[in-house]
Amino acid sequence: MTTAPDCRPADTAVIDVLAIGAERSPLIRIDGATTDPQALVDFACDAVAFAPVAGNLYPGLRAPMPLDYVRAMATRLDPLVRRVYALGDVRLARAECFFSIVATPAAALVPLQTVPHIDTSDPLHFATVHYLCPPHFGGTAFFRQLSTGYEAISPDREPAWDRARDAALAEHPHAAYPSPDTADHARIAAIPAAFDRLILYRSNALHAGIIDPAVAHPADPRTGRLTATMFLAYRPAHA
């Protein structure tokens, strides 16, 4: 049995807080995030089984992350998230994490995979992407929906966002990953991938992976677009 990697948050990590778009939403970028990122890649290659996730729109394969990574990273990120997003009196209710590999050809995408998306409209839910792949696989882009002007989708915005998205998909169907040319959307920020870079943002930000159709995306953790994706869900302290 392969031992889980001793890969902890690095004390030497470089942390920046960016403000993106007209809404100036905070985004945390951490370079040199862990002590031994290659050990995570090796673990992904040797110790876990990747598979599609039923009912999930992620365009590829996922596998479980080592629990030690999840605990250590959530513990490290928690005070930073609280400070940057001024969360107040909340508790961290759940942290879940996956290895992920983009592997779906553009021609096989379903319509909802061809436009920017959110993970949830809950403003107390956060997402991270930890890049464990070379930069040429592309990073993460953030968008504004032009017909509504929305960059983040709160619960009260969600019905109008849904209607506008569906109308654009009906009028401009296409089999391609989201890009600066996606109908009814403008790209407001693009964070390039870098090995051992981690970004964190609110899950209700309109976003999409930057997936270059000219780059092959093998379903192999050693040669593909391997990332670790984590979700942090907070709740009011007394809820």
Question: How would the blueprint of this fold be written?
Answer:
Layout (H helix, E strand, L loop, with lengths): L13 E7 L4 E7 L5 H10 L13 E5 L2 H18 L5 E13 L22 E7 L8 E6 L12 H14 L13 E7 L5 E6 L4 E3 L15 E12 L3
Antiparallel strand pairs: 1-2, 2-8, 3-4, 4-10, 5-8, 5-10, 6-7, 6-9
- If you average the pLDDT, what whole number results? 95
Q: Order of helices and strands, N to C?
A: EEHEHEEEHEEEE
**Range of helix content:** 10-25%
β-strand amount = 25-35%
Q: Low-confidence parts, pLDDT < 50 over ≥5 residues?
A: none
| Adjacency order of strands in the biggest sheet | 1-2-8-5-10-4-3
Task: Describe the global form.
Answer: globular
For the sheet with most strands, the description reads: 7 strands, antiparallel
- Amino- and carboxy-terminal Cα gap: 40 Å
Radius of gyration: 17 Å
Number of H/I helices: 3
- Please provide the count of β strands: 10
Secondary structure category: alpha+beta
